[in-house]
Amino acid sequence: MTDTPDTNATPHSKHGASLLELTPRTKRRNAAERRFRMYGMAAIASGLIMLVILVVNIFGAGMGAFQQTFMTLDVELLEAKLDKKGNRDIADIKKVSTFGYAPLLANAFETLVAKDGIETDLSPKKMGKLLSKGAAAQMRNYVIKNPDEIGKTVTFKFLTNSRVDGYMKGRVTRDSIANDKSISVTQLDLVDQLVAAGAIKKRVNLDFILGSDASDQRPEAAGMGVSMVGSLFMMLVVLALALPIGVAASIYLEEFAPKNWITDVIEVNISNLAAVPSIVFGILGLSVFINYMHLPMSAPLVGGLVLTLMTLPTIIISTRASLKSVPPSIRDAALGVGASKMQAVFHHVLPLAAPGILTGTIIGLAQALGETAPLLLIGMVGFIASNPPDSIAAGLMSPNSAMPAQIYEWAKRADPAFYERAWGGIIILLVFLITMNTVAVILRRRFERRW
Amino acid sequence: MGMITTSTYTKETDMSFVKLTSSALAIAAVSATAAAARDQVQVAGSSTVLPYASIVAEAFGENFDFPTPVVESGGSSAGLKRFCEGVGENTIDIANASRKIKDNEIAACADNGVTDIIEVRIGYDGIVFASDIKGNSFEFTPTDWFLALSDKVLVDGKLVENTFKTWDQVNPHFPAQDIQAFVPGTKHGTREVFEDKVILAGCEATGAFEHLLVAAEGDSDKAKKKAAEKACISLRTDGRSVDIDGDYTETLARIESNKDGIGVFGLAFYENNTDKLQVATMSGVVPSTESIATGEYPVSRPLYFYVKKAHIGVIPGLKDYAEFFVADEIAGPDGPLSEYGLVADPDLADTQAAVADEKVMGGSM
Asked: Which CATH number is associated with domain B38-125+301-356?
């Protein structure tokens, strides 16, 4: 910027005119430069505007997912429904399916309405529909864990269903539900009364960050947690494989390999591989890892292997670049005092190149973290609401999704409530990517040496 | 001194190499044992069946001690292809389909050793025509759709290129709105139903079918009929009819950006988006789970899933999942599937019995 010469100075004036007087030619050149600066500023400004629009859009649409509407409800766990024999035998209690718990909710609503003096024409069963479909499962899990509580009245904090939640967030209005079969205006009236009574409240929803995916009928219960774990295990596989292989390959190519046409071909092909569309790696993964090696479908291990293939070229290229940037004098000095070539590389060149290698690796990982296309083909996109894996082996082997795959899946679903969750998922993914890139920048700033 | 330090350094570098390779080996070792037992049911197939299957999978995971099954989408054909890849733990157990399995698919299955297939019909799915909520409302008949979208229409007893631009040219009762339709792409099972129950029906009703039959080439009557049917369902390619290869969310987005657009949706999708879409009647009937169940609403199709019998008893919970899927409390008229938009099958009891007996296709037990 500061190097730009003073535009008013015209040192070689052909026509012998005054240096202080601007000739038409100088004016044209100055004008051209001014125009170019304007183009540049316009380009940057439009880029910034796009970014602002994008960020505003994402946060506007996605922040809602971090809050959810909950309802507190006292439920009497009727012995007659849950444990007919009355012997608290866990096997018998387990036989009562979630469908057997729905009447309890209706009863609880009836009691609540009577107690708070709320007037409504709704049947108790219709009132129960205000809650998430997951409420019955929530009660069942509680009862199986605490069979002694049967017969008592327990206060539960249930999620409300997505329509009620949408109403609380302003997405669903009385006008918009005119043709909606899942909710009626009378139900919304009841919601208003329950809000006034303090039973229904919007709260921070940690389950969105920690929970697992939910089926199409309960968008309110869907969360990113399990797919986040899936992504984490994939990244571990990528790190454990791509970093050593990539670094070893680039050290050999850069420091030891003879310079001949074979290494030239290899070099060109590594650059080519970096440009191969990621879906190609997905197809390769399907045919090699699943069909030939018989690894399980939908497993983060396979996802990690596929992403390793994708990340390797990025790591090799950045590692070679940072090895190259270490001046030859370092190697010469090491060799000069009697170090072997390997010692020179591992004791002197590699430590100096490490910040660059790490930066490249982190950027490669960030790229892999946001990748969806190859996962489509190895079965990691779909309804995979498994519980969080309980061991490292299970984490690698049991079916799981990944963050971008989960977002893609939500964006496809019919209920508009999933739309909000897709955007919320994007916020979480962006937080991860920005953090990783920031770490890369900090590493580079702190440790990179310039010669 | 110098020599000694050098040698220890070398050892250290060797060590770090050993560490690197051993971590890589550890992963390879884990992957080698990976092929061992799979303990969850693996399902893939139709994206129309996916929401129902995921509702069932979720409830199954909650009520049974088995892990929640994994349900992937990708389309009926893709699902059946994976289903027919063979028997074994690295192949899927169940294929969801929004159409019946085809003979060539059964043959492909048999070639790969998948011989005993249990067919399970879970209910019916309605296909609806919907447009922007603020736009004009429509009362369609199959004839209207044929005239609007076919590439050739009958004018004064002659088949000519379709040049209709607005809906009022198709049917004087309609408003003068540009014809713009978003129909499912050919990889979707929904497309076949749209072609069979709407376009072909309209083709026959307008008399274009007769004309095409006369003009059709073929060795036999059957071949001629097939050629005529194929000619009937070929849609215009001037941009008035747009194939949507993605999901219904894409069709919805297209309608939101082009208010004149009319799209083809599943009933369940429409019912979740009644604030943005209005539904058109077909032959005077409003689509709903009731009118589809009685057969009044003409555009519907059965949904299926196919179970690999060889996997029953090998994959834990497979049979339980299949039985749970068609249980009254799930797939019955008051169950969660019906609430979501599935039209319950009146013959559900037969299906339940067939699943319990593991009755395979082709009659043999």
From this structure: 3.40.190.10
Task: Summarize pLDDT for A250-287 with one digit per residue, the tens.
Answer: 999 999 999 899 999 999 999 999 889 989 998 998 88
Beta-carbon separation of B34 and A218 below 8 A: no
pTM value is: 0.83
- pLDDT tens by residue, B151-190: 888 887 788 888 888 999 888 889 999 999 999 888 777 8
Contact yes or no for A221/A207 (Cβ under 8 A) = yes
Q: Chain A contacts of B53, Cβ < 8 Å? A: 383
* CB contact (8 A) between residue B71 and residue A382: yes
Domains and CATH numbers, chain A: 66-208 (no CATH), 225-447 (1.10.3720.10)
Interchain contact, B42 vs A387, CB within 8 Å: no
The CATH class given to the B136-258 domain equals alpha beta
Reading phi first (left if > 0) and then psi (alpha if -120 to 50, else beta), residue A18 is in beta
Question: Does the beta-carbon distance from A343 to B13 stay under 8 Å?
Answer: yes
| Alpha carbons A432 and B98: distance in angstroms, whole number | 38
Distance from CA of B199 to the nearest CA of A (A): 26
CATH 3.40.190.10 in chain B: give the residue spans.
38-125+301-356
CA A435 to chain centre: 12
Q: How many residue contacts between A and B have a Cβ separation below 8 Å?
A: 165
pLDDT, tens only, A160-179:
999 999 999 988 888 888 88
CB atoms under 10 Å from CB of A18, counted, come to: 9
